[in-house]
Structures are given as structure tokens and as C-alpha cells.
């Protein structure tokens, strides 16, 4: 025998020579079965011209080595040179080897079956599993043979073994057994084998999970097993979780493939969609028969979709669903519209649906009834259409330019709005609520509100809308209140008139606000409506006063500030609205003396002053400062000189007069007896300091309101000099100069210029301002760019600081 070349590698093959101690009765191989080169049992024996037989692969490698070395080919046995390297299959020997293997396979198989069926030792079972794996790999028929012998069921039962290694070998064996073998898959479909395999996904080791997923992948290729897998509770969630596990990419990829296979089974589509695997549903919805499309739409309406899925659905399935809505039967129409209601709840997906022309059929279902519609179906479709329309109008699209029919009517056309208003008055609460939401959203748009207001005026529907604030259902009351708030800027006089004509409705609004220990959306909406009504409407103010509303509102403010009413997300808007309502008392003081008495009884000056001191919203600051300005305007009229006692020449009365003069020291600004409560004096109620602080606020509306209140101390009829020195002592002068210099708005500039001119009338202040270059520049800018009134005041101010010459009056006389 010749030596092997140095770079020769040995080959291996599955045999039984090393298993004699494991399996009794195995026939030993003949010496001729072994390759002289590799010493292994031959799989493909061939012979050469020397007459010797070798394993084909080993012989080819022998020849390759000699070829690389440039040497003459020789026989591996005789080492004699060969004239030819032709190789010829040794068919006889190959048949003999195959027969020997089959005989031994049969013997080994019987032994393996015995080990498996008779609860053999774990080592015997592990050997049996290894044998079966190799046996199956030899040819596909062996898998069928094992099924006929009942081995597949026996192996499957061993999934419950307590030995982890056995379980791992069983999972591997089952995977190989079912590969491309539907019969074996049918066996595993019986009993609870599938459930046992799935259990490994949550309770098994990492290796068991890996092998279980691989087995499920093979099983899921069969429709019957795909359905069986889908019937196991929670399996979709488990597989979806594994598929999304980025730390185990190999298992994740297999789990993803299992889910894709399961999606081919129609019964699994809904469960897959519930875990975010929407593709199978998409495919069936887009490409299925009309009946299947209807079923998928019905599935879709049951899902809770994320915003991303809503966008995906609108993009991929929107046109199909709209087509079903237009052309489908009753079931398809209801299913598709229900699905569209959910998809349209996202702003961006709603825009996509509008592009797909969804508005026309939705409006049609709201207003038009076809001859084939049943009563129940008709009402259901109206309700769904109302929900869908409410979602669509929330998308922010300009509906003034989108036609809803062949007549080019739009959603805000007069006839459409009138139809909506008519339906609001003649439908059930569910549809009514959604249509009010539609109108509320549309009236919140600058481009849509005016046509709707015109339609409401023409139809006389405002009275009906106001009546809804007393509806039995709270959501309708709240929606109606919000709609009326949107109409305030266009129909506040009409709205206030109707409320005044029906004191019961106004009383109901007041009652809503009064009955609460916890603020709700309805309270805030009610407060917002009353707060938005025209503050110059004296009739409304009078009626509110007669209802005792202002006492209730003042009490509510006090309770909110003290924390007696639990704080929540409605607290801030409620406080803003209540303060604004209370402010309306101060707008009609001169016209109605009762309002002055009401303001005194409620001690409004102190209340609004206190509100300046809290860390509230800018709206509270603006309305409080505005109210203080209105109240302070009356201070000079309410302030009275103290009464001096009659002169009596005795010591006791002289002392009494002295004490009285101390007690009744007049206000330096209003020159009379003042108090926070009775004369609304800003000095007495300590409001000046807080108003001055507001001059440094970043919100210019707050600054304007605060400056307006301070300006009331500088008006004619007051001792403005004293007020100016008080401002100076409190640091207010510099802040007023800063407001002038910043020149933010025309209204603020006007007030600042007026205040500065009054301040500069005092010589010392004028001298100080003259050295302040920015003040002069700001006044010069106002003198050039302001309105006529502002320019005149700015001219006087510039004269005070010597920036303009002062000319004497020139008189012309005639001879």
C-alpha cells in the first residue's frame, strides 16, 4: 500500500463499525467495502485500469495532488504509472454496500424504536434520536417509513421529557421529519403537540426556543397547521415579540417567517392585525373578492390602530374603502365606513382620505336616503357619517375650496350648512353631538366661520343652538357652549339678546357655575361663554346682577385661590373666565350707580389687586389691571373731603378736631377721603406696586393694561404731581420710560407718550428725562410716526425737555 500524499485530507461517512457495542446483530462490513485511501465505507466506489476500487472523492483528490506536483499519475495501491486516469463506477460493489447498509439500517431502526417505545435510558434515547436524524437525511422515503411505523408520534410524545438534551434532540428530529413531508405534518396536527411546541417559546431555554421556532416555521407551511397554530391563545403576541427582539437576530428572523406563513391562512389575519401585522389584511382588502373585502373591512373596524397604522391604512387602503362605500352592498358600506371612522381620527390620514374624495359619500349618507336602505341601516350609516365628518373637519383642511357634489357645493355653502343645522334640530343625541362638533370645528376657522354665521342668521338657528345648552346629555351641552363661543365675535349681540329674553337659560348657565366642588369641562365652557359676551351690554350685566351671579363668581374666585375647589387642568381657564366676567361690572359704572354699589359690596378693587399678586396667567393680569383702571377712573368722583366739626371754643373739641384730622387725612392724589373698598383708590388698596411690576412683563398686553390703570392717577381732576412722585418713589418712572422706548404697539405707544408727557410737566422730571437720550428719540419717533393725537402729545413732551422750541401765539390784526 502506498503512502498518502502529505496534503491529502481524509473523508468521513456515516457507518456502523463503531456501533457494534451499542447495537447487537449488526453485520460487520467486508474489507472490500472500505476505500484503500480513506479507510472509510465507500459511498461511490469506482475502479481504474489497475483493477483496484476506490471511493470516487478520495481518488479524485489523489489525482489532483499528483497533477499539482507535475508528476505522472500512479495507482494508489501498486504505485505503477497509469496510462489513463479514467474512472469507472463499480456498480456491483456499490449495490452490495447499499444492501449491507439497508440491512443494518433496519436492524438499527428496530433497536431505536425499542429504545423510544420502552422508556429506554436517556443515553439510548439520545443515540436513537441521532440515528433517526441521520436516517431521515439519507432519503425522503425514510421519513414516510418512520411515520408508517408510528415513530413520529412516539418522538412527539417525548417533547415532555425531563431531560433537556432529549427535548433538544426531539425538536431537531421533528423539524427534519416534517421538512417537505405533509404526511408527517398531519401527524403533528393531531392532539396538543402544536401547543406543546409553542410552550417552548415562553418556557424553554434559548436553544429550545430556537429549535421550536424552526419547527414552527416548517409546520406553518401547511395550511391546516397554520390554522392550528393560530388557534393557540397568545401565540401571535409571543411570535411578534420574538420577531422584534433585536438581541436574537437569528431567532427573530425565523419568527418573522413563521408570522408571514401564518398570514397566508385567512383565519389568522385578524389576530395578526391585532399585533401590528397588518400586511395580510391589506392584501386581502386590496385584492380579495368583494365578499372578502367586506370581511376585511369588518375586521379592520375592530382594531385599535396606532397613528402610524392609520396613515398606512389611509395610504394603501383608503381608495378601496371609499370605493366600497360608494359601490358596496349594505354590509360592505357599513364595514368600510366604520373602518374609515377610525382611520380618519388621525389628522394626516384624514387629509389623505379627503384627497380620495371621501366627503361626497359621507355627506350623502348624512342627508340622502336611498330606496334600498333599511331603517336600522340608515340610522347606523348616518351616525357613522357624522362621526367620520367630525374627524375629517378636524384635519385643518380649507373646506371652502373642496366640492362635495357635482354642483360644486362645499361644506360651508349656505345650503349645506342649513342642512346641517336642520339635522341638528331633528336627530338623535349621538348624531346631534357629532354635528355640533363639526360646526364648532368649522367656525374655529377664519375662512369658514363667516359663511356659517350667515347661514345661521338666515335660518334663525341661533335660538335652537342656545336651547341645546340645556340638553340632558352633558357632551351636547359642552359642544353647544363651545360652538356659541366661536360665534361670539360675530353674533354676540344676538346671542346676548336671546339670553336676556329668556332669563331661565341665563340662570341655567349661572347655576352650572355655582354647583361645583370640582371644575369640569362644562364649567369652563359655560364660564368661557359668559366671559366672551360683550362687556358693554348693560342689559346682560343687569340681568346677571339680578340673578346674583357676580356674588357667585366672586365667591368662586376666592375658593379657587384658597384651594377650596380642587385644582385640575380646568382651574386656570376657569379663573381667567371668572375674572373676565367680574370685569364687566367695571365697564358700566357711570351709567348705572347700582354697579358702583355692587363693586363696593364685592370689594372689587381689593379682589383685582390681589389677583395681580398671584402667579396667574396673563389673561388674569390683563383683566384685573383693566378692571382696576375702570374702577380708578371713578375714584376722583367718589373721594370726598372729610367733614370738619363745628367750631366750639373749648379744649375738648379742639382735641377732637385734631384727632379727626389725623383719622381723615385726605388722599394725596384724589384730595379726599379714600379707601380701597368704597372709592377704589389704587393707593389705598396697594395696587400701584403690583401694577408697576406688571410694566416689566414680557406680554405687551399686560403692560398696556397696567399702564392704563396707572394713567388714571395722572388724569385731570387728580393731583397728578403727587401721583408722579409716588410713581418715582416706587420705581415706576423709569419703567414707564422703558415702555416708551421699546415702542411695541401703537396702542401702547399712545398710552406711554400720554403718561410721559404728564410726567415731564414736572420740571425735575423733565430735567432727568432730558439727559436720557433714548426718551427723546422715542418721543421724536412718536412725533413723526404716531397718529394725530399722539403726535400732538409727543410735541408737548418734546417741548418739556427742550427738544422743540416753544413759540408764542401770533395774532394778526387788521387796520
From TrEMBL:
It catalyses: S-ubiquitinyl-[E2 ubiquitin-conjugating enzyme]-L-cysteine + [acceptor protein]-L-lysine = [E2 ubiquitin-conjugating enzyme]-L-cysteine + N(6)-ubiquitinyl-[acceptor protein]-L-lysine. The keyword Transferase applies. Residues 10-22 have a biased composition (Polar residues). Residues 1-22 are annotated as: Disordered. Pathway: Protein modification; protein ubiquitination. Signal peptide: none annotated. Residues 28-107 form the U-box domain. Keywords: Transferase. SUPFAM superfamilies: ARM repeat (SSF48371), RING/U-box (SSF57850). InterPro entries: ARM-like (IPR011989), ARM-type_fold (IPR016024), Armadillo (IPR000225), RING-Ubox_PUB (IPR045210), U-box_domain_protein (IPR052608), Ubox_domain (IPR003613), Znf_RING/FYVE/PHD (IPR013083). Pfam families: Arm, U-box. One of its GO terms (biological process) is protein ubiquitination. GO terms for molecular function: ubiquitin protein ligase activity. Its EC number is 2.3.2.27. SMART domains: ARM, Ubox. The keyword Cytoplasm does not apply. This is RING-type E3 ubiquitin transferase.
Amino acid at each position: 500500500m502506498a503512502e498518502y500524499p502529505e496534503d491529502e485530507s481524509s473523508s468521513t461517512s456515516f457507518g456502523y463499525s463503531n456501533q457494534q457495542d451499542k447495537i447487537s446483530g449488526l453485520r460487520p462490513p467486508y474489507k472490500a467495502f472500505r476505500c484503500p485511501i480513506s479507510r472509510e465505507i465507500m459511498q461511490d466506489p469506482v475502479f481504474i485500469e489497475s483493477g483496484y476500487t476506490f471511493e470516487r472523492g478520495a481518488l479524485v483528490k489523489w489525482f489532483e495532488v499528483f497533477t499539482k506536483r507535475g508528476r505522472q499519475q500512479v495507482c494508489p495501491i501498486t504505485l505503477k504509472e497509469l496510462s489513463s486516469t479514467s474512472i469507472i463506477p463499480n456498480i456491483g460493489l456499490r449495490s452490495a454496500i447499499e444492501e449491507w447498509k439497508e440491512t443494518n439500517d433496519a436492524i438499527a431502526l428496530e433497536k431505536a424504536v425499542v429504545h423510544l417505545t420502552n422508556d429506554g435510558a436517556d443515553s439510548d434515547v439520545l443515540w436513537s434520536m441521532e440515528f433517526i436524524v441521520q436516517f431521515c437525511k439519507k432519503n425522503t422515503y425514510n421519513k414516510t417509513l418512520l411515520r408508517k411505523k408510528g415513530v413520529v408520534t412516539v418522538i412527539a410524545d417525548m417533547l415532555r421529557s425531563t431531560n433537556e438534551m432529549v427535548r433538544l434532540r426531539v425538536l431537531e428530529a421533528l423539524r427534519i421529519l416534517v421538512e417537505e413531508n405533509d404526511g408527517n405534518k398531519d401527524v403533528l396536527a393531531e392532539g396538543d403537540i402544536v401547543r406543546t411546541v409553542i410552550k417552548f417559546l415562553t418556557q424553554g431555554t434559548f436553544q429550545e426556543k430556537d429549535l421550536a421556532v424552526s419547527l414552527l416555521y416548517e409546520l406553518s407551511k401547511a395550511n391546516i397547521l397554520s390554522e392550528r397554530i393560530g388557534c393557540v391563545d397568545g401565540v401571535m403576541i409571543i411570535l411578534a415579540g420574538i420577531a422584534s427582539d433585536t438581541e436574537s437576530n437569528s431567532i427573530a428572523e425565523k419568527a418573522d417567517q413563521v408570522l408571514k406563513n401564518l398570514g397566508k391562512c385567512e383565519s389568522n389575519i385578524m389576530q395578526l392585525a391585532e399585533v401590528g401585522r397588518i400586511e395580510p389584511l391589506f392584501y386581502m382588502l386590496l385584492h380579495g373578492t368583494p365578499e372578502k373585502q367586506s370581511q376585511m373591512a369588518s375586521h379592520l373596524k375592530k382594531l385599535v390602530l396606532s397613528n402610524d397604522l392609520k396613515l398606512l391604512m389611509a395610504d394603501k387602503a383608503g381608495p378601496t374603502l371609499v370605493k366600497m362605500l360608494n359601490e358596496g352592498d349594505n354590509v360592505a358600506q357599513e364595514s368600510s365606513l366604520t373602518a374609515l371612522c377610525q382611520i380618519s381620527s388621525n389628522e394626516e390620514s384624514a387629509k389623505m382620505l379627503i384627497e380620495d374624495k371621501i366627503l361626497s359619500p359621507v355627506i350623502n349618507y348624512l342627508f340622502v336616503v336611498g330606496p334600498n336602505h333599511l331603517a336600522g341601516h340608515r340610522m347606523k350609516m348616518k351616525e357613522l357619517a357624522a362621526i367620520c365628518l367630525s374627524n375629517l373637519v378636524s384635519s385643518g383642511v380649507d373646506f371652502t375650496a373642496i366640492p362635495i357634489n357635482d354642483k360644486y357645493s362645499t361644506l360651508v355653502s349656505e345650503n349645506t350648512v342649513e342642512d346641517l343645522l336642520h339635522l341638528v334640530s331633528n336627530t338623535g343625541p349621538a348624531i346631534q353631538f357629532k354635528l355640533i362638533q363639526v360646526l364648532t370645528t368649522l367656525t374655529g376657522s377664519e375662512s369658514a366661520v363667516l359663511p356659517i354665521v350667515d347661514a345661521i342668521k338666515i335660518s334663525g338657528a341661533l335660538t335652537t343652538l342656545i336651547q341645546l345648552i340645556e340638553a340632558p346629555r352633558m357632551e351636547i351641552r359642552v359642544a353647544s357652549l363651545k360652538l356659541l363661543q366661536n360665534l361670539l365675535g360675530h353674533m354676540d349681540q344676538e346671542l346676548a339678546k336671546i339670553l336676556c329674553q329668556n332669563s331661565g337659560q341665563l340662570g341655567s348657565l349661572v347655576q352650572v357655575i355655582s354647583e361645583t366642588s370640582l371644575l369640569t369641562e362644562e364649567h369652563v365652557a359655560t364660564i368661557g361663554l359668559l366671559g366672551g359676551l360683550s362687556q358693554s351690554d348693560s342689559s346682560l350685566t343687569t340681568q346677571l346682577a339680578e340673578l346674583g351671579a357676580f356674588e357667585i363668581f366672586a365667591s368662586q374666585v376666592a375658593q379657587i385661590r384658597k384651594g377650596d375647589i380642587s385644582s385640575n387642568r380646568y382651574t386656570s381657564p376657569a379663573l381667567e373666565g371668572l375674572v373676565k366676567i367680574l370685569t364687566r361690572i367695571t365697564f358700566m359704572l357711570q351709567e348705572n350707580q347700582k354697579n358702583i354699589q355692587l363693586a363696593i359690596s364685592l370689594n372689587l378693587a381689593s379682589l383685582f389687586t390681589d389677583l395681580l399678586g398671584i402667579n396667574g396667567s396673563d389673561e388674569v393680569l390683563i383683566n384685573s389691571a383693566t378692571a382696576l383702571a375702570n374702577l380708578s377712573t371713578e375714584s376722583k368722583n367718589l373721594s370726598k373731603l372729610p367733614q370738619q366739626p363745628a367750631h366750639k371754643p373749648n379744649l375738648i373739641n379742639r382735641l377732637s378736631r385734631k384727632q379727626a384730622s389725623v383719622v381723615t387725612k385726605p388722599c394725596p392724589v384724589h384730595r379726599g377721603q379714600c379707601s380701597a373698598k368704597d372709592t377704589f383708590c389704587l393707593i389705598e388698596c396697594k395696587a400701584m406696586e403690583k401694577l408697576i411690576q406688571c410694566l416689566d412683563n414680557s406680554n405687551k398686553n399686560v403692560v398696556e393694561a397696567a399702564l392704563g390703570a396707572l394713567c388714571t392717577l395722572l388724569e385731570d381732576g387728580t393731583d397728578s404731581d403727587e401721583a408722579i412722585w409716588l410713581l418715582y418713589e416706587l420705581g415706576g418712572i423709569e419703567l414707564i420710560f422703558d415702555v416708551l422706548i421699546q415702542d411695541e404697539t401703537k396702542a401702547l405707544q399712545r398710552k406711554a407718550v400720554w403718561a410721559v408727557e404728564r410726567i415731564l410737566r414736572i420740571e425735575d422730571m423733565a430735567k432727568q428725562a432730558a439727559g436720557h437720550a433714548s426718551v427723546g428719540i422715542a418721543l421724536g419717533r412718536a412725533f413723526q410716526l404716531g397718529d394725530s393725537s399722539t403726535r400732538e402729545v409727543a410735541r408737548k413732551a418734546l417741548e418739556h425737555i427742550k427738544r422743540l422750541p416753544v413759540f408764542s401765539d401770533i395774532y394778526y390784526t387788521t387796520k
